[in-house]
Each structure stands twice: as C-alpha cells, then as structure tokens.
Amino acid sequence: MRWTLDQLQQFAMTAELGSFSAAARHLGKAQSAVSTAIGLLEADLGVELFDRSRRQAQLTDAGQLLLMEAQELLRQARALDLRARSLSEGGEAKLSLALDEALPYTAVSTLIREISRTFPDLELTLLNGTATEVADYVALQRAQVAFHFDRGPVDAGFEQRCVGGVAQGVFVASGHPLTAKQPVSRKDLLRHRQLLMHADDVNETAYSPKVWRSDSFYSIAEMAAHDLGWAILPVNVAKDESYRQQLQQLSCPALALPRLSVRMLWLQGMPLSKTAQWVETRFGQLLLQSPG
C-alpha cells in the first residue's frame, strides 16, 4: 500500500469537478501532476478509476465504489487533524459529567447541545442519578464534575461551588383535601403525610409527624400524584408533563421556601479544566433562565 492522502484528495476532487484540468486548477497543481498522481493511485490499487475514452473524467464502476472509501478516509483524516489541533491549543480530550436526574430538563438539554457546538472534538460521557449517586460518581472518579441539588454538607474530599438555584414549592395530588383551603398553614400540613427527600447523612425538615421517604424527587412526585401525601418538590419536577395534570401547587407563605441550591462538585486537589469552567458558567446562566 503506497498510495497517499494527497492522491486520494486529487482523485476525489477530479471525480467531483468532472475533469483533470478543473481539479488541477482547484488544487493549484499542474494538470500533468494530477494525471500522474491518479495514474500512480490506479497502479497501486490495481484498478482503473476513470474511463479515459471519454472527454470528461468519467468514473468506472470500480472508481465509483472506491470513491466512497476515499471520501471516508479523507473525512477521517480531517477529523484527526482538527482534533489534534484542538488538543495542541489546550483543548480537552474527554469530559465526564454526572447530573442530578431532577435538574431542569430544558437547562440540561440546552447545555448538552451547546457543548456539542462549542467543543465538537470533545469525548463526552454523561452519568445520571440521584443527588447522592452523582456525588459518588465523582468520589469514584467515574465523573470529573457533578451538578446536583444541595442536600447538605459533603465529604471533605470534595471541592464545591454553588452555580444557581431552582424554585421549589409544596405540591399535592389534584383533589387532595389540602387543595380546598388556600393558603395553607403549617398546622394544616402536619395533619397529612409528608413525602420527604432522603439522602445519606442529611436530615430534611419534617413538618408532619407522619412521613414517607425516598432518595428521588421523581419517586416522591409519583407518590404525591397518587395521593399518598404532600411534598416539597422542585417546580420543574412537579410540572414535568408526567405530573402536570396530576399535581397542584399549594400556597404556604409560612414555609417561605427559598430556591433550591444547585452546586458543582469535583475532587479536592483536581484543577478544573477550561472546558469544565465553561460548563460551570454556562449552566449557571441556563439555570437563571429556567422557568419557575
């Protein structure tokens, strides 16, 4: 195998433009040089690529098949060149992100699309899970960075930074007795079962003496939708199309719920790459734009 990428490029350009002379002009070469290069390519491959009995450079049947192979090799060569150039300029080869499953879908999906456009050569891995699970992914070095809802103190081995917040509210199933009284008081809430977020080493505030727990906001929303109790949920989860018609938000001024903080985690002592810093900044901006 003695053929070169330069010969493949001249072959592909001649096929595209329909003549040796047009390809030579486009490539800034002499026509004789292009003809010689394609002749050497044919000799090396052992097949004729063009029917030279015609005025135009007409591909043979073999030439049509091999043109597709040549175009794919040229595409891969360009991709290799672009990726090498990105790496030489300080770009990152890989990034693994762990994302809390309850983060706003619109913000997350927009972030992923923008990563694709901004870092086209990046190899991206996405891991999803509960707030506890995504922290574990970082601890186990399966993910370089995690974004999750702040559920309390984290292990000393993590670095952390708040990147934004998400609105939260009190939700019950449509038709729950609490919906008949608006606004509701804390005294009203304690008469009914509370569905509570459970995370390791985190004691969530229980406003009712009767509680059920889960480590997933979506599991809690599902239970609330089945009229098993009331819950404090991120608004984006409660208004997900799976629950939009089943859950109703209660007005409870006495709770004065703040926005639920979203933080970024990474291992202590591990510097953040430029790509991770860009992701942090952009995700914070997208959270500000999230409805609710």
TrEMBL record:
A Pfam family it matches: LysR_substrate
Signal peptide positions (record): none
Ranges where the HTH lysR-type domain occurs: 3-60
Keywords of the record: DNA-binding, Transcription, Transcription regulation
Entry annotated with the keyword DNA-binding: yes
InterPro entries documented for this protein: LysR_HTH_N (IPR000847), LysR_subst-bd (IPR005119), WH-like_DNA-bd_sf (IPR036388), WH_DNA-bd_sf (IPR036390)
SUPFAM superfamilies found in the cross-reference section: Periplasmic binding protein-like II, Winged helix' DNA-binding domain
Domain of life according to the entry: Bacteria
MF terms (GO), sorted A to Z: DNA-binding transcription factor activity; transcription cis-regulatory region binding
Family: Belongs to the LysR transcriptional regulatory family.
Protein name stated in the entry: LysR family transcriptional regulator
Source species of the chain: Chromobacterium sinusclupearum
Lineage start: Bacteria, Pseudomonadati, Pseudomonadota, Betaproteobacteria, Neisseriales
